[in-house]
Amino acid sequence: MTITIPERKAVLYKDIDILVVGGGPAGIGTAVAAGRGGSKVMLLEKRGFLGGNITAAYVETCNHFMHNLSFKTSGIWADMENAYRAQFGFSGDIRPHAPNRFSSEYLKIFLDKFTSDAGVEVCLHSFVNEVVMDGGTIAYVIIQSKQGPAAVRAKQVIDCTGDGDVAFAAGVPFDQGREKDGLCQPGTLNFRINGVDAVAMVKDGKDKLREIMKRFREDYRAGRTGLSCKRQDIPMGRLTENGIISYINYPCAYGIDPTNFADLSRGEMECRGYIMEMCEYMQKNFEGFEHIELASIAPEIGFRDSRRIHGEYTLTIDDVLSGRHFDDVIALYPQFYDMLSPDANMNEGSPQDKGYNGYICSYPKDGLYFEIPYRSLLPVGVENLLVAGRCISADHVAESGIRAISACMYTGQAAGTAAGIAVQKGLSPRTIDVKELQNTLRLQKLILE
Ligand SMILES: Cc1cc2nc3c(=O)[nH]c(=O)nc-3n(C[C@H](O)[C@H](O)[C@H](O)COP(=O)(O)OP(=O)(O)OC[C@H]3O[C@@H](n4cnc5c(N)ncnc54)[C@H](O)[C@@H]3O)c2cc1C
Hints:
The chain is α/β, with parallel strands linked by helices. 30% of the residues lie in helices and 20% in strands.
């Protein structure tokens, strides 16, 4: 049964050049690029802080798979990483060979200034799930506030919500999950512990956590853990001198639609149960963990995929694997894919299996890259809308490559720059000169070839 909601009035809160919705890696890249380009930019974020999954799901590790590659990150990602390092160093991490780890908490503080330095007006607590269309153009984006709806009029809108919420509201078609059954990768509720024997973990320059993770996988596969959560890996992140492990990526809930509130409620609660079970398991089975306590649970369950918006071009896993060249390339990224099995199948699948026969994972190797075309950021049917981040137009397995945090920031940088050109020239993002976009990105030191 459906009901009709009575018509409402919304105050016009702002008239702006560029509106970015979603303050995760993609949204930050988009907003900073557009702000640095001289446009008037507003960034809306539903939570009380920026950072997306890095801060809200504790995914502090980011580019761990790029360690030891000759590929060097570039553009706004590199600016952010360098400026963060200058201020916070390695965030107290004492693990040897610790690559690219942020502290979710320091990053929240850092991003407030990083965005305001680029002239971005940030509005937190601003949830968007409604737009007002004028034909094929978004006339207004509606913020749902406690005081009622508020409207923002923008020349260009960029959807960086991860779930493609703005594009969905604008009626853009999308795919979600696997082709056959729509199942997405599991949701994961990361957590943090303290009380670990930090000295023992790094004794003699070794990284004992790596050994623990390896042994856990062996025990799980041999059926020795007795744990109820279906997960054979337990990636861990930053370890501090005073015994905090700030990122434990373990509890997984399967069969969750990341856009369905009833499913999300089930996922959060199911994962909290697994966290308790895991803490007890670690105390009993991991040497040096005898005195741990649960320090915190991430603000929200995190997702690796959900809606994938239909764009002018859909990037495929074959494009990724073949390193296909696109004339409208806007980002170059090390060849990478990483997809947890949507139905908890612990076998090793392959990209061709499309997620039906187990997990699929390949970390980057030197010299192998893939390109992301501009057309994958252009949703079909709407003139003043771009998408960036994990919801761009890609097939399910290709999405598991473009979802990498720094790749999301690259597509954001390209979208923000394209929107800036569109505003300056009074054009639609669809009709801007792509060569001009590419040259501008090169001037911003983004690597395209
Ligand atoms: C457990 C886990 C581990 C991962 N590990 C890694 C890893 O090691 N390395 C790696 O590179 N990637 C990893 N990822 C993937 C990565 O975190 C995401 O793909 C990436 O963060 C996507 O960036 P995004 O900006 O597109 O979306 P998100 O990070 O999801 O950010 C979207 C932002 O938009 C906001 N938002 C959403 N909807 C709305 C709305 N309607 N209105 C207003 N605001 C809204 C959200 O609050 C959020 O801040 C992991 C993901 C998970 C869940």
